[in-house]
Structures are given as structure tokens and as C-alpha cells.
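Repro:
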Amino acid sequence: MDVDFIGKASVCSFISQTGLNQFVIQKVGAAKNSTPLFTFTDNKTTGKAVEEFSKFANAINPTQPYEMFLFNNIDELNEEEGATSYEKRKKSKMVRFTFQLKEDKAQADITDPKALFAGLVNEFKQEQSNNALLAEIRELKAKIDNIEEEEEEEEEANPTILGGFTLRDVDGILARLAAYGIIKPPVQQQAAPTLAGEQATQSELDIKKANIEKAINILYQYDPQLDTDLLKLASIAEKQRPIFDMVITQLRNM
């Protein structure tokens, strides 16, 4: 519940500011005909009113909300109407306010039950939504991993070489060309005999180097991806030497 003042010091300060010297205190929500909790009317100074309130404050529940009627020169009290009769006086000044000596933290932390329930429901929905999103992400990641694995298996089964053709495609093309007599059938290449310790002369190395550079320059004009295609061909030479030898043989027989 909201009150006008919290704490004994704030109430005492307010009494001093009003200059009034008599008061009646009751619990907030008390019945009209109930007896006041504390009455102080035999007084003519504000200082004495502050002193009496301080004594009273030391003996009451600090977290209970109270209502105070503060005035001067009270009229005769109607016993049947009780404290509310002070509101009907026609003479003298009166101030009415509520106060609490100490805030009830436990009570302050309690919110509207409907709002609290709505907040819990929203948190639950948000958690469920996050869990559903995580499940979808995991499922999507699993699908992507499966697709990548299938693509890797397919690439391993049918590795590509120049121009995006697979080795199976190249083998089929060479077989058809040989069948129509366009090229000679593949002949197993035999390594050329060399003498032990034989080494190419510097001039021969220079010629080979020049031929390689010339070939690369010409091929690059027709194959902008020549670098990656040559790397693929080199990979075939390392990992699938029989197929590489067959391709080289066909090229040499053309």
C-alpha cells in the first residue's frame, strides 16, 4: 500500500512544519465507530506533540500502515462516531495523512498476482521458443552435414579433372575416340631406360623449362582456371597413377 510518509523522522519533521499540536492515530481501514489506537489532545505545543509521537512510534508495528489526524483545539468528540468525527469539525485546522515507520520489503516485492503469472507465462513461452529454435538449428546443421558428406563421397568416387569432367567421363570419351579410329588405343607406357647416374645437361633443362612456360601461356588463353586444373591433374598423378598414365599416353598418341 502507498502511504504519504515512511519513517519516524519524516513524520516528526512534518508535524513540526505544520505547527499543530494534537493528534489521533488509527490503523488504515479501521471502522468508523472503532476506538482510535492513540489519542493525544491535552497539549498546546508542537514540540510536545513530536515528543509524544516519537514515544508512540517506538511501541507499534513498524510495517503497519497508520492514519493520523493532526489538529489544534479539538471540538468535543462524538463517542458514537469515533475518530471520523474530527473530519466534521467546523473550527480549527486539521491535517490528515498516512504513514508507515518501516517499509515491508517482503510485501514490496510482491506484485500483482495476475502480472506475476503473466510474466511467468511469457518467460515459459520465450524459453519454449528458444528451445524450438535451437532444435531447428540443430536439424538444419545435421542436414547440411549430411549433404556435405554426400558431396565429398561423390567427389571421391568421381574426382573431376580439366573442365569439370570426371575420370569416368574422360575414360568413356577416350574409349569412343579409339573405337572410331580417331585416336590409337591406349598403350601401356614403358619407362625409358636411363644410365645409372645419368643427368640432363643444363641446355636440356633450359629447353624443358621454356617449353613448360610456352605451354602454360598458350593453355591459359583457353583455360582461365588453368592453375586449379593443373593442380587437379597433379593430384591424379599422385593418387591415381594408372589413370594419369592413360591420359598422358592418349595425349602422346594424338
